[in-house]
Amino acid sequence: MVASTPETAAARRIELRQVDKFALRRTELAAAALATLSEFGYARTSLREIAQKSGFSHGVFHYYFRDKVDLITYCVREYKAACVAHYDEIASNATSAEQVRSSFAEALASSARDDTPMHRLWYDLRNQSLFDTDFQADVAEVDDSLERMIWRIVTAYAAFAGAEVVLTRSAVYAVFDGLFQQALLGIHAGNDAAVDSLREGVRQVLPRLLQNVGRESTD
Amino acid sequence: MVASTPETAAARRIELRQVDKFALRRTELAAAALATLSEFGYARTSLREIAQKSGFSHGVFHYYFRDKVDLITYCVREYKAACVAHYDEIASNATSAEQVRSSFAEALASSARDDTPMHRLWYDLRNQSLFDTDFQADVAEVDDSLERMIWRIVTAYAAFAGAEVVLTRSAVYAVFDGLFQQALLGIHAGNDAAVDSLREGVRQVLPRLLQNVGRESTD
DNA sequence: ACCGCCTCTGGTCAGCTGTCCAGACTTCTC
DNA sequence: GAGAAGTCTGGACAGCTGACCAGAGGCGGT
């Protein structure tokens, strides 16, 4: 780094403060956008609707975001940060396999119950990435970090159980993601047992992804 | 039914013929709509785009379908018919557990490979049902019939293996659906191994959903 | 040959969407 | 407090969307 003259140092300080305020506002607007997006879904959410629900004018969104894609991309990243942080303590705080299993099942179940709109938005946006290349990179990155998160939990569980995980990281994620998504559909359809089914499904599946060390599976 | 006079019989015959032609045209238009929908996704497909790609005028779609929802609902039903019929022979033609396992894994893998656009549309529309009640009933019906289809295959597998399925019907479907969807994301991201991973994932998961009759699982 | 119904066309309309922008307002610096 | 930079507003615009409709064309029945 080059040593700064007083002027450039002051300018940088100002600039940083402005950048912080700018970033803060972006986050605030993105949070408002997330709220509306999770309510109506990608296809039915316009910038004007977001603005109206957030109390801002629709113009301000174009001041802080290049375009709609830029805004939603930022929202996806925000989602990831909130989501991964929430689960990461499961693996680190546990002291036994059974505790990991219970915590994991409960965490998925309560998240599906409490954050239903946000999760359905995630699946919506992930699907959009199958059609629109704009979101593809960011969605893939979030999906990957979710996959790693699940993998951390499952390998922690396997370590406590003294066993090995038989599936690939990707397949393990896919299995729990499928259970989660089905629970979301169930919740939305008014099936009161959906959350309990998810918890029970996770509890039942988790041990079956392991095999004792040194034994070969039938293949 | 009331006995028909000659006139009403003729009228009915005509009417039936017209109904057939009408239904035929509906199916034809729905097929064209499916093609465009699977290319662009729900959010980015307009009736005019569908019409242009199909060679019809945009007006004709309003003649055969009440509105856009009516059209897409019909498309969903068409999808189901095509999809379920394709898989149903797996369970009925098999003679051993291993054969069911191989056929099932191969069927999922090749379907993901060959019908990628149609499947991503299905997931798109299923997600729309989480936001828009218009599709909810029909989507739920298709999802249920897919669930039953998977269940038939898995129970057939269990029967050949002389074992029981430990998960609920819904959880079994969720697991394979998750694997399938992850493969779709992989394919779209250009991951060449995605199809093979799906096949291998299905092969590995399937036996682990069973337990020997008479033995209790750890719970 | 004529008539009535079915089919289909393409124009029109109101409403919404993303984007841009001129200008008002606020905040900060000197 | 003057000026500049940053922030925000709301109107304007072009393009698109779903829906509607008047009328042309075709087909079958008599």
UniProtKB/TrEMBL annotation, chains A, B:
Q: Does the keyword Hydrolase apply?
A: no
Xref: Pfam families = TetR_N
Query: InterPro entries, alphabetically?
Result: Homeodomain-like_sf, HTH-type_Tx_Regulator, HTH_TetR
The ranges the UniProt entry gives for DNA binding are 46-65
Keyword DNA-binding recorded: yes
Keyword line: DNA-binding
In this chain the HTH tetR-type domain maps to 23-83
- Could you tell me which SUPFAM superfamilies the record lists for this protein? Homeodomain-like
GO molecular function annotation: DNA binding
Protein name according to UniProt: TetR family transcriptional regulator
